[in-house]
Write a structure and sequence with these properties.
By secondary structure, the protein is an alpha+beta fold. Helix content is 20%, strand content 48%. Strands 1, 4, 5, 6, 7, 8, 9 and 10 form an 8-stranded antiparallel β-sheet that branches.
């Protein structure tokens, strides 16, 4: 049996056609896989800045104030106009951890007991808090603007949440749609 004659310029033999189809499909699959890889990277980066990571909240106590509160003592004022929910919690942030972008109904008072916490506002300004640091070891959160707490060294925090009454109580709202800071 004789082998088929070699292809002339501009003509492709049957076996060569099959090889070219396989090579063409490999290029398409490579392009698809590269596109999936790029998309996955963007999703990972987006979720990494919006989802708590190495951030553990342990509630220590939850209760409610059923009556309005009006306290004004020694230049400190505390007032509620309706029933409120109160929670005290310990929040541990492991090295490299963060809270993800979020906000709180009502107010939150955070005491950094050990380590340091960098609190970043939605305008991308930030301050670092911790024992012995220039900004002190306490900060206050509140309002509808997204914010993020992170720690490069790790931190232990004791946090008091005071929020409008809800059933069940709501102390945190994740801001998945906030684009974050560069």
């Amino acid at each position: 049996m004789m082998a088929p004659p070699p292809a002339k310029h501009g003509r492709i033999l049957q076996g060569e056609e099959k090889v070219l189809r396989v090579l063409g499909s490999r290029k398409k699959w490579s392009a698809v896989l590269a596109g999936v890889g790029v998309f996955a990277t963007f999703v990972t980066v987006a979720l990494a800045t919006h989802t708590p990571f190495n951030f553990t909240t342990t509630p220590l106590g939850t209760g409610n104030l059923v009556d309005d509160v009006k306290q004004n003592s020694d230049r400190v004022k505390f007032q509620t106009k309706d029933p409120t929910d109160v929670r005290v919690a310990r929040i541990d942030i492991a090295p490299g951890g963060n809270s993800g972008w979020h906000h709180h109904p009502g107010i939150v008072i955070v005491t950094v007991a050990s380590g340091s916490v960098t609190f970043t506002h939605s305008d991308c300004t930030s301050k670092t808090y911790g024992p012995g640091l220039p900004n002190g070891a306490v900060f206050v959160e509140g309002g509808d603007e997204p914010a993020r707490a992170s720690s490069t060294t790790g931190a232990t925090n004791y946090v008091t949440f005071v929020a409008p009454h809800a059933n069940p109580p709501v102390f945190r709202i994740d801001d998945h749609d906030f684009p974050g800071c560069p």
